[in-house]
Specification:
Blueprint: E1 5-12, E2 17-25, H1 28-50, E3 53-57, H2 64-70, E4 80-84, E5 86-88, H3 98-105, H4 126-137, E6 145-148, E7 171-174, E8 184-187, H5 189-192, E9 198-203, H6 208-215, E10 231-236
Parallel strand pairs: 2-10, 3-4, 3-6, 6-9, 9-10
Antiparallel strand pairs: 1-2, 5-8, 7-8
The protein binds 6-phosphogluconic acid (6PG).
6-phosphogluconic acid is lined by residues 58-62, 86, 88, 98, 149-151, 155-158, 179.
Length: 241
């Protein structure tokens, strides 16, 4: 892949060793193309191996352009199963819902069976929504690919700094999120780590401080994501050391 530089970085946090492989890109188009390629490759491999592809979507704004590219692809959609790593406790059609963003950008435009698109029912509130999503995740095998974003404070999914990490269930309620709205539902750290692949998408100078903490081994929430397979970080617009 032209112009991409791979920097092998081993970082530690207080709880787990995390192996992170950093791929820096020189344009938004390059990181989007690389992300699309990674997702489609992961889907082909998972479907060949398991007959299904379980992907967990990142929320926020960063992944939207990749979701829009997926809407134009011809893939084996009948075998895709889509989950969300978190969502905000807002009405189903609220513009700030992660599930609405993904449906508008991608899922409403491809033939993934509706019963294989697993929105978090965050409109029920954080406690009931988490209970319902934990039930939805019961018995679901190891994820194939978890997409994650990075907040400017180092959060990922809805795992925020200085908040107790609740691994009591596969999906848990979030209270007092520093990123509005305060009430959210997130897949737990433990369940996010039960995956065959993790891809962080990190773009923009606003994430530089969080990346600096990450690369110097600080225990930010992003470093809680430490599956045995390690994590890949695709970055653009941030300096890696
Ligand atoms: C959310 C996300 C959150 C997001 C980061 C990055 O609900 O907001 O789950 O973890 O991925 O905050 O957001 P941006 O991509 O908008 O910078």
């Amino acid at each position: 892949m032209k112009n991409s530089q791979i920097l092998e970085v081993k970082t530690f946090n207080l709880a787990d060793n995390q192996v992170s492989r950093w791929h820096s890109f020189t344009s938004q188009d390059e990181i989007n193309q690389a992300t699309l390629k990674r997702i489609l490759q992961a889907a082909d491999e998972a479907i060949a191996k398991h007959g299904s592809f379980l992907i967990v979507l990142a929320g926020g704004s960063t992944p939207k352009s990749v979701y829009q590219m997926l809407a134009k692809e011809h893939a084996d959609w009948a075998n895709w199963h889509v989950y969300h790593n978190d969502d905000r406790c807002l009405p189903v059609d609220h513009v700030e819902r992660n599930s609405k963003m993904a449906r508008d950008a991608w899922l409403n435009h491809v033939a993934i069976p509706q019963n294989q698109i697993h929105d978090i029912p965050a409109e029920l509130g954080n406690i009931e929504g988490a209970k319902a999503y934990a039930k939805r995740l019961a018995g679901v095998r190891t994820f194939d690919l978890v997409l994650l974003g990075l907040g400017e404070d180092g959060h990922t999914a809805s795992l925020f700094p200085n908040q107790a990490v609740d691994n009591s269930a596969d999906a848990v309620p979030v209270f007092n999120s520093p990123k509005p709205p305060s009430d959210r539902v997130t897949i737990s750290q433990a369940r996010l780590n039960n995956t065959h692949g993790v891809l962080f998408l990190v773009t923009g100078a606003g994430k530089q401080e969080a990346v600096n903490h990450w690369l110097n081994g600080s225990a930010i929430p992003a470093t809680l994501i430490a599956p045995a397979c390690g994590v890949d970080v695709y970055s653009f617009g941030v300096k890696l050391g």
